[in-house]
Design brief:
Layout: E1 13-17, E2 26-38, E3 43-50, E4 64-67, E5 83-86, E6 89-92
Antiparallel strand pairs: 1-2, 1-4, 2-3, 5-6
């Protein structure tokens, strides 16, 4: 979706699947991202490199690509004033 465009970056992992091998995923990484969105199709062009050691993937095949996005991490936030530094040790007072 368009709101996810900012979350796509070079180096991000992808998994490519083709209908010829529906139970197999081909891992890869995004290597290039277009600087602009296609306003007609509302799409963003990205290129990925995928290893093809067995030669199963052929030029012109259609594929479905899933981009691995980092999941938000659950964290506890505390005020900076609650942290006390003693040498190289930080302690939190609650």
């Amino acid at each position: 979706a368009e709101q996810s465009v900012g979350e796509i970056s070079r180096g991000q992992f992808i998994t490519l699947q083709v209908s010829a091998y529906p139970d197999r995923g081909f891992p890869g990484r995004i290597v290039r991202i277009s600087p602009s969105i296609n306003t007609t199709a509302r799409t963003l062009m990205a290129e990925a490199e995928v290893e093809n050691p067995d030669g199963l993937l052929k030029p012109g095949q259609f594929a479905t690509v899933r981009i691995t996005q980092l999941q938000p991490v659950t964290a506890v936030m505390i005020p900076a004033e609650a942290v006390r530094s003693e040498g190289e040790v930080n302690r939190v007072f609650v």
